[in-house]
Specification:
The chain has helices spanning about 5-15, 30-40, 45-65, 75-95, 95-115, 120-130, 135-140, 170-190, 190-205, 245-250, 270-275, 290-310, 325-335, 405-430, 435-445, 465-470, 505-515, 545-550, 555-565, 575-580; strands spanning about 210, 220, 255-260, 270, 350-360, 365-370, 370-375, 390, 450, 465, 480, 490, 520-525, 530. The protein is an alpha+beta fold. Among the domains are: about 5-65, no CATH class; about 70-185, Topoisomerase I, Chain A, domain 4 (Orthogonal Bundle), CATH 1.10.132; about 210-290, no CATH class; about 545-580, no CATH class. The longest helix is centred in the C-terminal third of the chain and has 27 residues, at about 405-430. It binds zinc ion.
């Protein structure tokens, strides 16, 4: 016997058995993901199934006539009032704003839960993910409970009523601030994402598929449960992960090493194997610009994020949750890495033992690590304890580490990985599922330059060098050495996401052990260059090719400096601009323009 709604039953039975969503309580996300799998693996069947499901929708919207009545927005007095009453009495006992905020956020969650059970078609469509959003309905039939200020920070005041019953003048007054901020956001919401689109397209444009296989045996370690290992190649064996291989790997449960842009060793661009296959299961053609495609895929949802904030879809972020980056602001912060990084996690500047943890007079903590003073701001949970040994770059409390700091302490590879993962988390938190490969492309192109510490080939100390160039200039005597003896030496071969030229740390050794390595190629000499953590806005200006730089900002300065220092430019590089400028486009080799 089938248990579930008629709609779920009908949708389920239109899909081939293998692609039916599990259970009987699924929504639009599950259906979409089933359809994507089907399209990829059996395009023939997809071409009949997809119109079938669309027809179901058309029929039901015509004959059923779902519509909104007053009962849809009838206030949820019975379930809501006890929750609000209990919140009110808890708030009276609260000692400070932080406590009030945390009570409010817990209450908001409860009101959201009861809204999910609200009767009527509005709750039905919102729950299924078809139309509307449960947070909006919550504000109407339950209560917003807590409203943000102009910056989105929660105002510590309990909103007791919902919009369908009408709020009090005081509640309206508090809500007006958020409403006004949202109005401004709406008016300016497309300019920010538009700017980011241009910056990203410029920064990521060198990632053109340039050859069939760079030949690396290296890769990044991924969780076998991550759906995104599908469509990639396994590192070493070069086996393609299709859906049946994915299921095998998932049930084996071991971490898998897969090819990735982060570990591709192609001289320019990226190779087919490291780029993986496209949604149709085909290798990506040589000459395809996966960087520009990804920049589009990444920046398009930014507008959506800004707008959904305005439509009240996002909940006010709270304590715990308020150490999360959100939306366009969060994205910009991660790629621009300003000094005043919001919710920044303090990191250990040096390696050593934690010898002192004191409460600071102004709030927060004073921590001493190996004789160096560190400060942790108020309202943070410490992540270190007395006498613990830490590494430079370890986090001292909760918060968001600045990618620039991570790279400074742990090298270009770890910096790239961290940036890619943080961006992925940000999109996930916004309910946007993006292929992690996009973030890997971004991280690779953003953290792409180093500064020479000593003379390196033709480069003088202080000169900016593309990382791939710098890596080739590392000509130290290297030896294969046991991992346990390698700490403090310089890594001389790519190992997972860690890149040559990086100082080997304890955490790197742990990473490599996890991947089953016991030895590594390393050198005694110190590192020769320092990775540059520049904002995505500045990164395209490091490009050594002045004609390519012309596709970006500051053209006048670019022309002046190129003329003054007699710069030369390859017309057929992995950036279309010089080809377009000179009319020579399309005459390059191996994917170059
Ligand atoms: Zn490659």
């Amino acid at each position: 016997m089938y248990k579930g709604t008629l709609g779920n039953y009908l949708v389920k039975s239109s899909l081939p058995k293998k692609y039916q969503p599990q259970g009987s309580n699924f929504g639009i996300r599950e259906v979409k993901s089933s359809l994507v799998d089907l399209a990829r693996e059996d395009p023939e069947a997809y071409s009949t199934v997809a119109p079938e499901i669309k027809k179901l929708g058309d029929e039901f919207s015509t004959y059923e006539g779902l519509s909104v009545g007053l009962d849809d927005i009838e206030p949820e007095y019975k379930k809501r009032d006890p929750i609000i009453r209990s919140a009110r009495s808890q708030i009276l006992k609260a000692k400070n704003d932080n406590e009030i905020t945390s009570i409010l956020l817990k209450t908001q969650k409860k009101i959201k839960d009861i809204t999910k059970t609200h009767s009527g078609d509005m709750a039905l469509t919102a729950n299924a993910g078809a139309k509307g959003n449960i947070n909006q309905l919550m504000k109407a039939v339950g209560s917003p409970v807590v409203i943000g200020d102009a910056t989105g920070k929660p105002t510590p005041y309990l909103i007791e009523r919902g919009y369908s019953e009408g709020i009090s003048p005081a509640e309206a007054w508090i809500g007006a601030i958020e409403a006004r901020a949202n109005g401004i956001t709406a008016a300016t919401s497309v300019t920010g994402p538009g700017e980011m689109q241009k910056v990203m397209a410029n920064m990521m444009s060198p990632l053109v598929v340039s050859n069939t296989d760079c030949g690396t045996k290296n890769g990044i370690l991924m969780d076998p449960k991550a759906k995104s290992i599908e469509g990639r190649y396994l590192a070493g064996s070069n086996k393609y992960v299709d859906s049946s291989m994915y299921r095998k790997l998932r049930s084996a449960g071991k971490k898998v090493k897969v090819r990735s842009a982060l570990t591709c060793e192609a001289d320019g661009g990226i190779c087919q194997k490291c780029a993986g296959r496209d949604n149709y299961g085909n290798n990506i053609d040589i000459g395809s610009n996966v960087g520009i495609r990804s920049s589009q895929a990444l920046t398009e949802p930014l507008t959506q994020m800004t707008l959904s904030a305005r439509h009240g879809v996002n909940l006010v972020s709270g304590k715990g949750a308020d150490l999360k980056l959100r939306g366009l602001k969060g994205f910009k912060q991660l790629v621009e890495m300003p000094k005043s990084f919001m919710h920044k996690a303090p990191l250990a500047d040096v390696a050593g033992k934690v010898t002192k943890i004191d409460r600071a007079p102004q709030g927060g903590f004073d921590i001493d690590i190996g004789g160096t003073a560190h400060y942790v701001p108020p309202n943070r949970q410490l992540k270190v304890s007395l006498n613990q040994t830490v590494e430079a770059g370890d986090v001292l409390s909760n918060g968001i580490p600045n990618p620039a700091d991570v790279m400074r302490h742990k090298g270009i590879g770890e910096g790239r990985k961290y940036l890619a993962e943080s961006l992925n988390t940000l999109y996930d938190d916004e309910g946007i599922r993006a292929d992690p490969k996009h973030f890997e492309y971004l991280a690779k192109t953003q953290f792409n330059y180093v500064k020479a510490d000593t003379r390196l080939g033709e480069y003088l100390p202080g000169e900016v060098i593309p990382y791939n160039e710098a890596k080739k200039l590392l000509k130290d005597k290297s030896q294969t050495i046991q991992l346990s003896k390698s700490k403090g030496m310089t890594l001389m071969e790519p190992a997972l996401h860690h890149m040559p030229g990086t100082k080997i740390t304890g955490s790197m050794i742990r990473d490599l052990r996890e991947a089953g390595m016991s030895k590594v190629l390393a050198s005694d000499n110190s590192t020769k260059f320092t990775p540059i953590a520049a904002s995505a806005i500045r990164t395209p200006l490091f490009n050594p090719n002045w004609l390519q730089r012309l596709g970006y900002r500051y053209q006048k300065a670019t022309i002046l400096s190129a003329a003054a220092s007699g710069e030369k430019a390859d017309i057929h590089g992995f950036n279309p601009i010089p080809g377009i400028v000179t009319g020579e486009i399309g005459r390059g080799f191996d994917g170059a323009y």
